């Protein structure tokens, strides 16, 4: 069985260079590859195009890369929690492509499946459709969207084995599974890394064939963007 394990996040991120396009899993701060983002900050890799549901917050997640001006373009759906993102976008320092969330997910999944393009009704008649081919299906207009082209996809899972099989936990599953195999190289960081064959095949969410490198992360903060609690009387 092929062993996908690498010994460190530094080894996992080998080959990531300036001007590359990178997918990063997560929804808000849930299920983000914390170790990999921190290493990208440390590496100082710049002029990145990042594909992610959101841009993190000012001092965590992709917000750390924005602080260091390492991202030149963000392709996202929701970006409302990051003041630095807003500042850079409004000042023209950051190129931004906002995409309907379902379209973002499907463009990832299409890349994973080797499908070059697809039609969706989302965005027709809006700025999202400008310059894109449109076509009518069953009396409804659709917009053609292309699959993403990414150099690397970086995801975070709960458990994995050395063969690259992955299990996600709860809502941390989000965009991570659809990004596996959607880049030329897929890197998975996991909370618990087990020997190959240790996972129950019936519980595996992503097979190892879609993962290129896997390593065990550490010191996960798992921050919550907004915590709302009820007063106890």
Short description:
The protein has 233 residues and is of the alpha/beta class. The chain has 6 helices and 11 strands. It has a single domain (9-216), classed as Glutaconate Coenzyme A-transferase, CATH 3.40.1080.
Summarize the main sheet: 8 strands, mixed
H/E series = HEHEHEHEHEEEEEHEE
What CATH first level would be assigned? Alpha Beta
State the helix count.
6
Tally of discrete structural domains: 1
Helix share of residues?
Answer: 10-25%
Uncertain regions spanning at least 5 consecutive residues: none
Distance between the termini: 58 Å
Strand segment tally: 11
User: Could you say which structural class the secondary elements and strand pairing correspond to?
Assistant: alpha/beta
CATH superfamily placement: Glutaconate Coenzyme A-transferase
* CATH fold-level name: Glutaconate Coenzyme A-transferase
Q: What radius of gyration results from the CA coordinates?
A: 18 Å
- The gross shape turns out to be globular
CATH architecture: 3-Layer(aba) Sandwich
The overall pLDDT average reads 95
Percentage of residues in strands: 25-35%
């Amino acid at each position: 069985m092929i062993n996908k394990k690498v010994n460190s996040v530094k080894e996992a991120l080998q080959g990531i260079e300036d001007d590359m396009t990178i997918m990063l899993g997560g929804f808000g701060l849930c299920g983000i590859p914390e170790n990999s983002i921190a290493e990208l900050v440390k590496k100082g890799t710049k002029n990145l195009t990042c594909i992610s549901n959101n841009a993190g917050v000012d001092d965590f997640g992709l917000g750390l890369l924005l602080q260091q001006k390492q991202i030149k373009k963000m392709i996202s759906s929701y970006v409302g929690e990051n003041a630095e993102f807003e500042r850079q976008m409004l000042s023209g320092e950051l190129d931004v492509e906002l995409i309907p969330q379902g379209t973002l997910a499907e463009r990832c999944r299409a890349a994973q499946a080797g499908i070059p393009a697809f039609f969706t009704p989302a965005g027709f008649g809006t700025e999202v459709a400008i310059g894109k081919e449109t076509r009518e299906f069953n009396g409804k207009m659709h917009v053609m969207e292309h699959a993403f082209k990414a150099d690397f996809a970086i995801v975070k899972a709960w458990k994995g084995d050395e063969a690259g099989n992955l299990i996600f936990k709860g809502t941390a599953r989000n965009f991570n599974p659809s990004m596996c195999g959607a880049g030329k190289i897929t890197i998975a960081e996991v909370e618990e890394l087990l020997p190959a064959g240790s996972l129950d095949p019936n519980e595996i969410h992503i097979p190892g064939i879609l993962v290129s490198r896997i390593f065990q992360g550490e010191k996960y903060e798992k921050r919550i963007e907004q915590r709302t609690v009820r007063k106890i009387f």
